[in-house]
Structures are given as C-alpha cells and as structure tokens.
C-alpha cells in the first residue's frame, strides 16, 4: 500500500506582498502528476491547508480543484487542521465528503477520527488528530490534570486504546521534539514562545508512522518514522537552501515500512544573490530561465546607490527584498543609536550628518550640507 504525505500548503499565502497562488496551483498539479505516476491509495495532508483562518475565495477554489482531482482518481484523502486553519471552516461538508473518500478532522470532539484501510496484509488504521491546545482537550478529560500540550496528546492517545499489533498511522499538526533534540525551524513558522507546545516523540510509540505538519523543513524527529513532510514551497528566505519534497510511504506487513522522498520543482524558486549591484545586474542576470525567481539581494556596495531596487527589478522582476552586507550594516548592528555622544547637545543638522554617514557610509558634501541647513531653517529649526 502506498501513501503520499504532504503538509503546510498555506493556500492563499502572500510572501513580502507577493501572492503565491499561481505557484501553489503549479505545485499541486505536480503533486497530481506524482500521484498519477505512483498510484497511491491515499494522500495525507497534515494541516495548515490554508494560510489564514478566513481564506480568500481564490484559495478555497484552489483546494476545491485539488480535492476534486484526487477524488476523480479514487485517491483517498486524510486531512487535519493546522494552527493557521479555522477548524470549523475546514470541517464544513466533511460528513458528506467522507462518502467520496475525503476524510477531514478540522475540530476535536474528544475522539480521534479513525479510518480503516485494508490490503493483503490486513487492516491499516489511520487516526486524524487536528491541531489542539490543552484548553480544547481538557473538557473532554475532566478526570485528568491536563496542563501541557504533551499531557493533552497523551490523554487522547491513551483513551483510544490502540492495538499495537496492528499497523497504525497518526496524522497530526504539532511541535514535536526528540528528547533534548529540537527540529530545524524556519522564519515562516509560528512557534509558541518558550517552547510550551513541545511534545516528545516518545508519546507516539504505538504508531508505525506519524505524519506531521507544522515545520516547513522536511525532516524526521526522534526517529525516522516521526516525520515532518515540510511545505511544498519555500515561504521565507530562511528556506532558500531547502530541497522541497513530498514523502512517499510503502507499507507492507507490520514493521515493514519504506519511507522515501520525491522532489518537488516549483514554478519559481526562492533564492538569495549576493555581491555589488553592478555584478548582480550583470553576471548574475545572464540566466534568463532563473530571472523569474523570487529574489533576496544582499548588496555589498560601500558607496551610495541610486534606485537599487529599480535597477535590480529590471533583471529580476520578482525581487522581494534588498539587504546590505557592508561596513555600514555591520556598524549598525553593533550600534543601537543613530547618534554618538550627548544627543541633547547637538543641533538637528549635526544629528542628520551622523544619520547620513551611518546610512551611506560617506560624509555629506558641502553642497548637501548647505541644502540641509536651508531645509532646517525653513522648517523653523536651528540648522547649526
């Protein structure tokens, strides 16, 4: 039996004000092509299906098209809500859709949604655990003292009395650690401050595989069978070096599990380029096939630049961000104030001179000083 594991679609997401919908449509079509090639019995979608609790209409249409294509292929779908999803909205229509093989656990009602698949090796139990918080779980287990996320998940699993002799898969969207080891994180993820949402992987001993969502880097935690599929697209420049993939499971008899990754290729990559401006718009602009990528440019120029973003956009129309790595930026990191010494003893023009120097790494010319002195005088402030 083959299953595909994906997570963190974040349909409808915007990155640096760029809509990712076109890229998301493209990558979902690629996932469908992979499904056509490998013919899985089902596909697991481990939360953060949408990027917002109230997704835009276009995002809902994208998910509707994807589920419709999967249903037409007779591929069963197993979905849980993530922390970005509205549990109730995601749950809408779930009782009707399960008759077409689309199983959704948006809300938690005290029990895990349980689906049984069968093949020549017997039953395969798939349990769906939507994103939960202790406050959501406590009312269902009033005889237990549930204080932490781990307490909550442990109470839920213990209550199910899962048969360890059978094959069992859990689909969840939580922050899992392996003892003292924490997984790799990205800037685009939401993690609770102080690590209060940590759940140790040992809680999942009864499961043959735990299909996780929440973290955007594909990785296993604790042991190989507790795995984050990662997001299918890069959603921050902290992910620029990621190799996105989906996870494919091949299940045989109890204990026989093959885990592989299938690479995903985006419509546009997200990458970083670094160097002086003239080099980035020259040498690095010589690969037209990559010019449509989402770009973070790190400029190393020391002098003042004119319309750097405009010049870069002529070569990289989807440039998202510019940063600097030069002596000025290093000095700014090491300094918490834009002015030296006693600010109260300095004139507005002196303060502006210091600000200009820190921003541009060069001193103002005599002509520029004269212009700014006139500006301050016209504004009613002392230029000197």
Residues in helix, % = 25-40%
Q: What structural category do the secondary elements indicate?
A: alpha/beta
Q: Helical element count?
A: 11
Q: Using the coordinates above, name the CATH class of the largest domain.
A: Alpha Beta
Record the strand order, biggest sheet.
Answer: 6-5-4-1-15-16
Q: Uncertain segments of ≥5 residues (pLDDT<50)?
A: 336-340
Query: What's the SSE pattern?
Result: EEEHEHEHHEEEHHEEEEEEEEEHEHEHHH
- CATH fold-level assignment of the largest domain: Purple Acid Phosphatase, chain A, domain 2
Structure description:
The chain is of the alpha/beta class and 384 residues long. It is 27% helix and 25% strand. It has 2 domains: 2-263, Metallo-dependent phosphatases (Purple Acid Phosphatase, chain A, domain 2, 4-Layer Sandwich), CATH 3.60.21; 270-378, no CATH class. Strands 6-5-4-1-15-16 form a 6-stranded mixed sheet. Strand 2 (14-15) and strand 3 (18-19) form a beta hairpin. The model is unreliable at 336-340 (pLDDT under 50).
